[in-house]
Structures are given as C-alpha cells and as structure tokens.
Design brief:
By secondary structure, the protein is of the alpha+beta class. Helices cover about 25% and strands about 30% of the residues. The chain has helices at about 30, 40, 45-50, 55-65, 65-70, 95-105, 165-170, 185-190, 250-255, 280-285; strands at about 1-10, 10-15, 25, 75, 90-95, 120-125, 130, 135, 145, 150-155, 160, 170-180, 180, 205-210, 220, 225, 230-235, 235-240, 260-265, 270, 295-300, 310-315.
Length: about 325
C-alpha cells in the first residue's frame, strides 16, 4: 500500500493507493463513511493518526479490500502531494560507506573501526520539515548550501531494545528525504564535536508518499533493496545509485536507536546520504566547486516509478 497527504478541494486529505497506479488514490474520508460507528476509523483524521493506529487499521483495510477498491479513485499530480505528516522525533543515520569515507576524507580523516561496529545518528529538527514540493528558504548567511539524497523509514510500532526481527515488524514504510545541509555552518559546529547542529536544522523535505514495507519485500537485496534513486539539480542528474549499497539495514539502525530508548509510531529515521548523493562528495573527489543557489530546483526520484521530491530554493526568510 501507499499512503500520502494530498491537496483535495483545498483541504489536506489522507489518501491510500491499495493497488495499481501510484498516482491513483482513494480518499480516507470516503472509506470512513463506510464505518460510521467505528470510533477507531472515524477518529483517525490524518496520516499521523493512521500511523499510530496502524496495527489496527492496516488489517482493517485488508479485511475490507473489496469495499475500499469500490470507492472513487482520484488522480493526483506531483504538485498535489503535501508533506505526509510532521514527525515528532527524527533521527538521521550515517549508513552508506561511500559517503562516510568521502566525507571523512574531505576532513583529512581516515575511516575508523568504530564506524563498522555500530550505526550512528544525530537528532534532527522535526519543526523544520517540509513537503515534496515546498519552497526551501535559503539559509541566511550560508555560503555552501548542499543537498543530501536519503531514504527515510517511518516507524509504525512502539519498540524498545529491539531485536532485528522486532525492528523489522516495527517498520511502517519508506519514502525519500532530502537532508538539506549548510556545509559552512556544519564545518564550524563539527570542529567543536557537537555534531552538524546548525548545518542541518533549517530544512528537511520528504515524500511524496510512503510505501509500506511489505510492498518492497520482493526487491530485498543485501542490507537494503534493489531500488535505484537519483538526484537532479535544475534537471541535470547529479547521481543515480542503488539502495542496496547501504552498509547497515534499517533494522540495524532501529536496534541501535531503541537501545535503552523507546521509539514511538510516527518517528522518522533517515539512512544518511547515499554514495555521491551530495555536492560535497563531488567537490572532494572530482574537484567541483559549485553550491546550490537561490532559484535552483533539486529533485529526488525513486526509480522507475516511486516517490518524488522537487523543491525550489527561495529567498531567506
């Protein structure tokens, strides 16, 4: 299944694609009308509500598949997709070896054994999240604005001290994410060993829709999935790479994140940047010197047909 928040008749509506064309969705509010006396259904008003109740609602949808598929279907364009929901907690990992090696090289550092011991993450800023077509304000005083092409995982079950198996069962689904980065701010902060902080907290965009984990199972490959993703700047491809190149699985990330810590439905976990999925990597290895500027459009695509993000960079606010 695929889930999205879409603009329909000037309202933000939860929408579901049960099968077939990913751009054809059924509105949740039409499904709700079929069950006027079911409080779990009628009190689910948006995507975050749905995620938090997904252990009940997903079986409900599957049980009533015939009724669901009989409802009107609506076709939506990319511009109709809104931010799926606002995560309450957001962790971003560092799980693609190519990216980690190159970024450390750029700081004059070798890879260290600890990177191969456990996946590591930083906490991001959920209040700065935006949707797949939102304008991203250029960060004031930044001189080195960059993109980061990532996969994001939506947590669907409360979990603590997870095993790999319980972590797998806690995954609701996946989507694309751009972890926008102000590299000059990040460089300053990381000299003080406090993580990327101001280099990351001004904008993160994700969407356009979330694909449930079960739908991807046939594509599983290594620690990830045989799914290609790409990043384009003003229509020119920066990178195309495969999710299967990831070093740590999302299950392993969840095991680490949930150690002595409870993770709740609706929390978002980022994979870290896929290899070559940032301008800085191309600067380090290929001698490029360009950064993103006001007016540029950055697009991320899940190939061949999947979620897509396309954000224009606007003036500082």
């Amino acid at each position: 299944m695929k889930f999205a928040t879409v603009k329909y008749q000037n309202e933000a509506c939860l929408a579901i694609s049960f099968q077939g064309n990913a751009k054809e969705f059924i509105l949740w509010r039409d499904y709700v009308k079929q069950f006027p006396n079911d409080k779990v259904i009628t009190q689910t008003l948006n995507f975050l509500d749905f995620i938090k109740r997904s252990e009940i609602l997903i079986p409900h949808l599957k049980k009533n598949e015939e009724a669901l598929l009989a409802l009107p279907k609506h076709s939506f364009e990319n511009a109709d997709f809104l931010m799926p929901y606002r995560p309450e907690v957001y962790r971003d990992f560092y799980c693609f070896e190519q990216h980690a090696k190159t970024m450390r090289k750029g700081r004059g550092l070798e890879m260290i054994p600890e990177w191969y011991q456990d996946p590591v993450f930083h906490y991001g800023n959920p209040t700065s999240f935006g949707g797949p077509v939102d304008v991203v304000a250029y960060p004031k005083d930044c001189q080195k604005l960059d993109l980061e092409l990532e996969i994001a995982c939506v947590i669907g079950k409360e979990i603590r001290n997870a095993t790999l198996e319980t972590a797998r069962k806690a995954i609701f689904g996946y989507t694309l994410m751009n972890d926008w980065s102000a590299r000059d701010f990040q460089d300053f902060d990381m000299k003080l060993n406090m993580g990327p902080t101001k280099g990351k907290d001004f904008a993160t965009t994700f969407g356009s829709y979330v694909i449930t984990a079960d739908e991807l199972e046939s594509k599983r490959s290594g620690k990830g999935y045989d799914i290609e993703v790409e990043a384009l700047i003003n229509g020119e491809r920066l990178v195309k790479n495969n999710w299967s190149t990831i070093y740590y699985s999302f299950e392993e990330m969840i095991v680490r994140a949930s150690k002595n810590c409870t993770i709740y439905p609706g929390e978002l976990i980022g994979s870290g940047t896929i290899g070559w999925g940032s301008l800085r990597e191309h600067h380090i290895e290929k001698g490029l010197s360009n950064w993103l500027k006001i007016g540029d459009t950055v697009a991320l695509n899940w190939l061949p047909e999947g979620p897509t993000i396309s954000n224009r960079i606007g003036n500082p606010v």
